[in-house]
Amino acid sequence: MRFLITGTAGFIGYHLARRLLDAGHAVTGFDGVTDYYDVELKEARLARLAEAGDFRFVKGMLEDQAALDRAAELAEPEVIIHLAAQAGVRYSIEAPRTYVDSNLLGSWTVLELARQLQPKHLLLASTSSVYGANESIPFAEAHRADEPLSLYAATKKGMEAMAHSYAHLFGVPTTSFRFFTVYGPWGRPDMALFKFVRAVLAGEPIDVYGHGEMARDFTYVADLVEAVVRLVDVVPGEANRVALPGVADTLSAVAPCRVVNIARGQPTPLMEFVATIEAALGRKAEVNFMDMQPGDVPMTFADPALLKALTGYVPGTPVEDGVRAFVDWYRGFYGA
To answer: pTM of this prediction?
Structure first.
């Protein structure tokens, strides 16, 4: 099958592209390779993809319609997977314009491309952050998600809304998946696991927000990729509408469009996560307890019932195993 994937220089995009290439699919990647974090890490991911199989790459920003069109001409995609975005809750306070440009204008550009190409399936990466001030736990896709606490969350919710309108108007089968705290090898340097491991190995203190009284539904990257690959074949439509007790399907009544959580459904307390890192490194962390940052939430906790109903799969890698895999990669990549 032929795939066009945006964000292939990124953490999740790299892993998904590699999985599809290893399975014999053709992948065309598209990425701006911005300097939001270490460009050398992004280039190292792309270099590995270039050696992995039928991979082609076009460098460009999402807002650049001509560049995206060039990628589409190379790919002739049957499936489009849109992962590229400006990520990060905290950075959205510092640089809001980049989120509007990438997550709203850039995502609209992808939607316009899908309108023209009419792929078998368009899949879009959203985030657990869209649940915002929702107090219903665990977070289910049918819950309200209209009180975002960060611009990052607001732009992702806006992308979901635009995608629904395009699915309705132009018949593009669309699935938006909401990721929950993805982690693992080749992760982003701005993520907690990366920062904690780097600091502990350097003998530096780690900043733990919310005074450690937080929890996250950590999802190992290989599990997330498995879920996405399975969802590729679940093209939204009445033929796969879920009608199971206790499972609310988000398949729209007026469009081939669905939203799906991807997570373990098992939140891990933050200090337990820190202890897991300490065990994997064989070192204790010096902790600076900090107030919760603006835009953050005390807990993420997903209900993955819809994912299981659609694919028969729920992420299950224990956090201990995932952290150990990241530490092994980090030590190998950085010689630490």
So the answer is: 0.96
